[in-house]
Amino acid sequence: MKVNKVYVGLACLVASGLLAGCGTNHSSSNGNSSKQEVSQSSKKSSSTSKKANTSKSSNDESHSASSSSSIDTNVTDQQIGVMAYMHFMPQSVSAISDGDMFYNPGDDGYMALSTHGDGSATLQFKRDGDQVSVKYMDTNSGTTVADSPTVTKSISLKELENNYYSSSTQKDQVNQYVSKLKDGTQDN
Fold first, then answer.
1. pTM of the prediction?
2. Rounded to whole angstroms, what are the CA distances from 158 to 61, 88, 118?
3. Span 30-80, pLDDT tens digits
4. Domain 59-183 maps to which CATH number in 3.30.1460.60, 3.90.930.60, 3.90.950.10, 1.10.1740.10?
5. Residue 135 contacts by C-beta under 8 Å, 6 or more apart in sequence?
6. Is 134 exposed, middle or buried (0-12, 13-18, 19+ CB in 10 A)?
7. Are 140 and 51 in contact (CB under 8 A)?
């Protein structure tokens, strides 16, 4: 009987510790501030785990797509960059069509498509066999551009080609975007 009381007491201590950790801090002058911080913290945690799952499934899909098809080695780095930009940063594609996008060497062997602005519209990419590795700022995760983390993802070149470079209309669009890229190594 004493053993059961010990377990019940231990369970109560653990449960109260968990409940205390889940509460909000009401000692600040503005109770809403604490609730917002807890809410933002849980949103970030949820967002991070969703992104990790999305990245894993995206990488799994990329791997299976790349293993079953051959790669068109005739696409240029600029075409690969534009397709990757269309895939990972569709909200900023207008910068390419407006002629405000630069193509230049990035870091660590990567090439970059950039507006030469604050970095939020910059995509670095590198082809590695049948895979394309990309790096960009995840502006949805930071409260400001400066707080935004840089994420690295991988996608198969075949998946990019299937989604953005398979029909003549798609090829024309990609090639039109490529023709509007400015040389980022030159003073324009």
1. 0.60
2. 11, 15, 31
3. 444 433 333 343 334 344 444 444 444 444 444 434 333 444 568 999 999
4. 3.30.1460.60
5. 106, 110, 123, 124, 125, 150, 151, 152
6. buried
7. no
